[in-house]
Write a structure and sequence with these properties.
The chain is of the alpha+beta class. It contains three helices and six strands, in the order H-E-H-E-E-E-E-E-H. The radius of gyration is 43 Å and the shape is elongated.
Length: 239
């Protein structure tokens, strides 16, 4: 009788727990598109083309230690992941998954949206022991390693997204300065090339004119010399 009562209590407890889990799960997924659960400060607009922002965003992820899982230029979506070790507790690490969507709203104007999630991972090492009479641990026999996900979910802290966009803004500024510097250098090189071609043309024309004038002077001098040269006397035939 006691056994039957215990089983009944366990069944009731199990059903109660499942009911609570079901209610909690239903409430959470129903709030997925609730304005109160939407991300904040996870979208920015830039005055650059989408292809430029796409390349710069990949560079930002890589510079921050992320690994690019996929990057689809056509859809404008980049997915990246990073594993970070907790500085204060070496047993914990964090897996960060980030997704960026880049869409071009107008000519040289792009909108960047970021969403991210994280997993808190516990890395635990447990020593196994040989027990005397299955009770007292006497001799260590090895080490067992466990990896447990103790927490996971979306990253909702606005600071996370602000840091990303600040990094992206700095990278965009550096890119624009580099493009302007390259354009200026190219313009300078083109100006120098045109000037060199012009100088070479003027030099060639000057040398050609000088050569023509010299040839003309030599011709005139030769004609003058021939005109001033006395005619040769004809031989006299004696009878």
């Amino acid at each position: 009788m006691r056994k039957s009562g215990s089983i009944l209590i366990q069944m009731i407890s199990f059903l109660a727990i499942m009911t609570l889990i079901g209610c909690a799960t239903q409430q959470e997924y129903q709030k997925a598109f609730d304005s109160q659960h939407s991300l904040v400060q996870n979208q920015r607009t830039f005055t650059q083309s989408s292809d430029s922002i796409f390349r710069i965003a990949k560079q930002v992820f890589i510079q921050q230690g992320f690994t690019i899982e996929s990057a689809d230029f056509k859809s404008g979506i980049i997915k990246a992941v990073r594993n970070m070790q907790d500085k204060e507790n070496e047993e914990f690490s964090y897996n960060i998954h980030a997704s960026v969507d880049i869409s071009e709203e107008a000519v040289a104007q792009s909108t960047v949206s970021l969403a991210a999630s994280q997993q808190t991972i516990l890395h635990r090492a447990t020593t196994t022991w040989w027990h005397l009479l299955w009770i007292l641990p006497i001799i260590p026999t090895g080490t067992e390693y466990q990896t447990l996900v103790v927490k996971e979910g979306n990253i909702t802290d606005p600071g996370f997204y602000t840091d990303f966009f600040n990094s992206l803004k700095v990278a965009v500024t550096k890119h624009d300065l580099a493009v302007k510097a390259a354009a200026k250098a190219s313009e300078k090189a083109e100006t120098e090339r045109v000037a060199a071609e012009k100088a070479a043309k003027i030099k060639a024309e000057t040398e050609a004119k000088a050569a023509a004038e010299k040839a003309e002077a030599d011709r005139v001098a030769a004609e003058k010399a021939n005109a001033e040269k006395p005619a040769a006397e004809k031989p006299i035939n004696n009878p």
